[in-house]
Amino acid sequence: MEGERESSSLTWALIQRKGKLDEVKKQAWLAGPLMGVNLFQYGLHMISLMVVGHLGDLPLSAASIATSFAYVTGFSLLVGMSSALETLCGQSYGAKQYSALGIHMQTAMLILLILSIPLAVIWINTGPILRLLGQDHHISLAAGQYACFMVPGLSAYGLLQCLVKFLQTQNIVFPMMICTGITTLFHILICWLMVFKSGLGFRGAALATSLSYWTNVLLLALYVKFSPSCAKTWAGFSREAFHNVFSFLWLAIPSATMVCLESWSFEMMVLLSGLLPNPQLQASVLSICLNTAYTIWMIPFGLSDAVSTRVSNELGAGDPEAARLAVNVALVMAVVEGILVGSVLILIRNVWGNAYSNEAQVAEYVAAMLPLVATSNFLDSIQCVLSGNARGCGWQKIGAFINLGSYYIVTIPCAILFAFVLHVGVKGLWLGIICALTVQVTCLAIVTIRTNWEQEAEKATKRVHDFAVPAESE
């Protein structure tokens, strides 16, 4: 009997180990291509700025400010609103209510297209708004022109985010990465032509970005229309999309709040850096560190999207234990990623600044900052996974309140205290970010630890079956 029990225990341990390895493979299979998608999308604006940079300081400054303004007032809001699809489409797919995915996507597209109208009005008035905020007259005028040429791509960006979430929640990620990669290659050519051959100058880069977004939308739309992989989830346009508006907004508004509160706080750090002594040095160092942090953030962001998909799928399928396992595995992967990337940042700290500037003072300051960037990346890796779990479960409201407290009750006061009262400079601003991430991770971890996964599966089942489209069988 004792031998049988030992054999049974060993078998169960092997099954559990295999389950964990399978989960690692599933998440790596999702996260890798999603990192590629995020990098390619980020690359569009980087390519545009690199091309514009060859025209001089004024066009580059104007394009940079216009891009930041566009992200704060438009892109971040559209990304946040579309994130509601991670809950709605992910849980519907897990519950095999395939037709619901297409309806949810259409609802999101409708809402985001309507939202694009007032956002476009804001973008058209970018120049006057920047002047009201005290920006240089010439830079404001040029930034306003750049933003106007980005307006045609605003609605395309919203549609693109909906298509990305629609495919992501079905685990269709490699075709999405290929389409986005093709778009980025196309953008290199079209951006060069628009800037140097069309007579538009620096404004051509903004128009090229808009055209590239529409190209990406077209490629993904054609894939959804003609691929057998989407045959069950896309049945064409339906009036049901109009009936689902309020259930979408119920998640989309707190989801947008969750994203915007976090992203806007980083923009506030940039504004605060301009008030420090020697603002040119401080702003340059902060810009390098933010650019570095954003680039490496693509890795945990891919993990965030992956765990969101896995959790929403498993809860929709009524398997709470699989959802719990997905979160635990993702957290281990995030810790490993945070340690590895942080170690690399610390090892290259003395040479990294030279890649951005020939000024020795800038390079030395960046070297002193990178250990702090490594620390924030480690915390951000864990935060991304916990936030992805929140989106998969449908906890957008909880996430919004946590982000409000973390980034505005903690970050801003701490950053001001360290940077201006204790005179730590840009390091103080970054310490404020670390304080916020610590609070954010702690709060999200407490919520996750206290989760009743069986209850979350029941909520997901109710959410899915409250929707009007009847569930299909396989």
From TrEMBL:
One of its GO terms (molecular function) is xenobiotic transmembrane transporter activity. The chain crosses the membrane at residues 28-52, 58-80, 101-124, 139-160, 172-195, 201-224, 245-264, 284-304, 325-348, 360-379, 400-422, 428-449. GO terms for biological process: xenobiotic detoxification by transmembrane export across the plasma membrane. Keywords: Membrane, Transmembrane, Transmembrane helix, Transport. InterPro entries: MATE_euk, MATE_fam. Belongs to the multi antimicrobial extrusion (MATE) (TC 2.A.66.1) family. This is Protein DETOXIFICATION. It comes from Hibiscus trionum (Flower of an hour).
